[in-house]
């Protein structure tokens, strides 16, 4: 590091509630596996938080996607429309079912799936649509739900990064037919590893519960009518999740404050844009993300290296899925200019509950310093 500023990581879990108390209770009671009161308490509390009738814990956000797709009836030969700008797990879960993901580009303000491109991708094989509430901003759901209903398709909300986000006053996770969440260590609330499926469909919730427990018949112990999976969440992890959920309002308020500081400190910096917050949205700012214009002298990897030298951990945006080797053949001749621009020139900045105003100021000053230094090196000295 080139200064005395302590290192600022990209994310840092805030365990500021009853986590230790609840985990200690699990250990002292010996209920540490996937059976225990905290599993049910976490599910009930999360369903209430999302405004759904059902919530089902599972081992992580990817298994949540897999379970939801299986319960929705996705089978080999089906097609599922997904955004190309998302973490690879969204497409992988489709492939786990033997189906094929069909990619759609982003729209330019929120960077979410562009509803204008969806209908042209629907074929007789299309089974449904996965929307991803990217970086905590909800997708424009009304036009997508309208398309889905007209064509008889399901809508699955991938809300891994969007706990507490709202679309026109409705919590994400309660709008589509089913939704999935991640509780990985860098998410808004965490269980370390963990996931959740939410829905208002009892039959779908029951199927998710059966499939995550090896496919066992709930009415006949150790009877397995179909092949299932061991996708259960432990009582210990659920205890952490319940404690985190009890503090969710604090976590969300912290992120709103941090995002406002970033917007304040970067407002007059040329060449930077960031994800919009639409008037109909509650953006929960999983990670504050900036995109540099093409005149910015440093690319994203050089910028990340310069930030690290100044004590700041940034992160590149994930590659769009159509560029990844397993999926390149599925991109057809489609072009994804918006997603590619965001990824090529974008980077995530530290965003986590408990980050201070002075730390955010240091991040922003560091970003400006390394950009200005690179610009000065490219400008010929006056004679």
Question: Largest sheet, order of strands side by side?
Answer: 1-9-8-5-4-2-3
Number of domains: 2
What's the helical proportion of residues? 25-40%
Q: Which fold does the CATH topology of the largest domain refer to?
A: Aspartate Aminotransferase, domain 2
Could you describe the 3D structure shown?
By secondary structure, the chain is an alpha/beta fold. The protein folds into two domains: 19-246, Type I PLP-dependent aspartate aminotransferase-like (Major domain) (Aspartate Aminotransferase, domain 2); 248-378, Aspartate Aminotransferase, domain 1 (Alpha-Beta Complex), CATH 3.90.1150.10. It is 36% helix and 15% strand. The chain has helices at residues 19-29, 37-50, 61-71, 89-96, 141-151, 202-212, 235-246, 248-266, 300-309, 337-345, 357-378, and strands at residues 54-58, 79-83, 100-104, 126-132, 154-158, 166-167, 170-171, 178-182, 195-199, 272-274, 281-282, 288-292, 315-316, 346-349. The strands form three sheets. Strands 1-9-8-5-4-2-3 form a seven-stranded mixed beta sheet, with helices on both faces. The chain has a four-stranded antiparallel beta sheet with strand order 10-12-14-13. The chain has a three-stranded antiparallel beta sheet with strand order 7-6-11, with no helix packed on it. Helix 3 crosses helix 4, helix 3 crosses helix 6 (202-212) and helix 8 (248-266) runs parallel beside helix 11 (357-378). The longest helix has 22 residues, at 357-378. The chain is globular, with a radius of gyration of 22 Å.
């Amino acid at each position: 590091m080139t200064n005395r500023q302590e290192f600022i990581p990209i994310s840092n879990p805030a365990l500021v509630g009853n986590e230790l108390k609840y985990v200690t209770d699990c250990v002292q009671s010996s209920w540490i596996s996937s059976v225990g009161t905290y599993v049910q308490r976490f599910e009930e509390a999360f369903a209430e938080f999302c405004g759904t009738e059902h919530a089902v814990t599972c081992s992580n956000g990817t298994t949540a996607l897999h379970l939801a797709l299986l319960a929705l009836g996705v089978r080999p030969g089906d097609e599922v429309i997904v955004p190309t700008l998302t973490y690879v797990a969204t497409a992988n879960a489709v492939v786990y079912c033997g189906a094929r993901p069909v990619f759609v580009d982003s729209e330019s303000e929120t960077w979410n799936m562009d509803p204008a491109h969806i209908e042209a991708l629907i074929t007789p094989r299309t089974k449904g649509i996965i929307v991803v509430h990217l970086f905590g901003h909800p997708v424009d759901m009304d036009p997508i739900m309208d398309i889905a209903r007209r064509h008889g398709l399901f809508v699955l909300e991938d809300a891994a990064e969007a706990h507490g986000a709202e679309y026109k006053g409705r919590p994400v996770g309660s709008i589509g037919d089913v939704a999935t969440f991640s509780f990985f260590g860098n998410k808004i609330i965490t269980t370390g590893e963990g996931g959740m499926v939410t829905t208002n469909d009892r039959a779908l919730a029951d199927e998710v519960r059966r499939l995550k427990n090896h496919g066992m018949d709930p009415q006949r112990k150790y009877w397995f009518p179909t092949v299932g999976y061991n996708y259960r969440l432990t009582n210990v992890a659920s205890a952490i999740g319940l404690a985190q959920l009890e503090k969710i309002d604090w976590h969300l308020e912290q992120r709103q404050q941090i995002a406002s500081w970033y917007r304040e400190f970067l407002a007059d910096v040329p060449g930077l844009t960031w994800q919009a917050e639409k008037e109909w949205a509650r953006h929960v700012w999983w990670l504050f993300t900036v995109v540099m214009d093409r005149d910015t002298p440093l690319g994203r990897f050089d910028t990340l290296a310069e930030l690290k030298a100044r004590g700041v951990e940034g992160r590149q945006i994930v590659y769009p899925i159509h560029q990844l080797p397993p999926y390149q053949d599925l991109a057809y001749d489609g072009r994804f200019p918006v997603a590619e621009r965001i990824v090529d020139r974008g980077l995530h900045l530290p965003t986590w509950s408990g980050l201070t105003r002075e730390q955010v100021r240091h991040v922003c000053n560091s970003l400006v310093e390394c950009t200005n230094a690179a610009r000065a090196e490219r400008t010929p000295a006056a004679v």
